[in-house]
Amino acid sequence: xxxxxxxxxxxxxxxxxxxxxxxxxxxxxxxxxxxxxxxxxxxxxxxxxxxxxxxxxxxxxxxxxxxxxxxxxxxxxxxxxxxxxxxxxxxxxxxxxxxxxxxxxxxxxxxxxxxxxxxx
Length: 120
Fold this sequence. Notes:
Elements: H1 2-7, E1 14-17, E2 24-26, E3 30-37, H2 43-48, H3 51-62, E4 67-73, E5 77-84, H4 87-100, E6 108-111, E7 117-119
Parallel strand pairs: 1-7
Antiparallel strand pairs: 1-2, 3-5, 3-6, 4-5
Helix pairs in contact: 3-4
């Protein structure tokens, strides 16, 4: 059961409970959210930027050290959710990309809380 969840990238510190047994702790990844500023950059940046180019550059920088698992687009920002063995390592690897690409100006990089709890 936990092997399949770990293969899917379950975060470190996750727990699962089968029926009334004691919880089992598992997980292999840490998360990092890159929150892109969607309202305060110059209009030209939004008009001439493609988020897919930013995502490609982030994934190239991460290499085998991480991947993008999902994203969220809200009224004021877009969040890209990256997962890998180490959030700190991923932050180091993407720092240059975020400093060089205009769409990433004024972004926030936030480690995601660890753990997923499930009852099976």
